[in-house]
Amino acid sequence: MSVRRIVPNVQSEALEESAKFYGLLGLEEVMNLGWIRTFASPSAPTAQVSVMTGDKTAPVIPDMSIEVDDVDAAYAAVRESGAEIVHPLQDEEWGVRRFFVRDPNGRVVNVLAHR
Questions:
Q1: Per-residue pLDDT tens digits for 12-69
Q2: How far apart are CA 96 and CA 113, in angstroms?
Q3: What contacts 48, CB < 8 A, 6 or more positions away?
Q4: Cα dist. 24→17, 47, 51, 72, 89 in Å?
């Protein structure tokens, strides 16, 4: 299994203001689902930040997202470790398969792969 990108997730009710702010830093919007917006560097597209008001299908907002090439292998490894699964492995309507796990620092990590 390999990591494709890591994205910090910022909880916010100021999505429009965030878009303007991150635009000042040279980031461009690459995804907007209404409740989450992701901004990326045009020259390094995996350098990203997401701003979200909530999560459409999960009980909490994750602190970060880690995209992997094999989410099922990641899920198996995490379950075997005994780490707390916060949101079960599932396919989402926006084209990802994901789960949430709590890291040893108490942070919630969204582990995902695009389908």
A1: 999 999 999 999 999 999 999 999 999 999 999 999 999 999 999 999 999 999 999 9
A2: 6
A3: 5, 7, 27, 30, 38, 39, 40, 41
A4: 11, 15, 15, 37, 36
- How far apart (Å, rounded) are the C-alpha atoms in residues 104 and 78? 12
Confidence check: pLDDT of 1 > 90: no
65-82 residue pLDDT tens: 999 999 999 999 999 999
Distance CA 29, CA 32 (A): 7
pTM higher than 0.70, yes or no? yes
Q: DSSP characters for 40-102?
A: E-SSSTT-EEEEES--SSSSS--SEEEEES-HHHHHHHHHHHTPPEEEEEEE-TTSEEEEEEE
Q: Are 10 and 52 in contact (CB under 8 A)?
A: yes
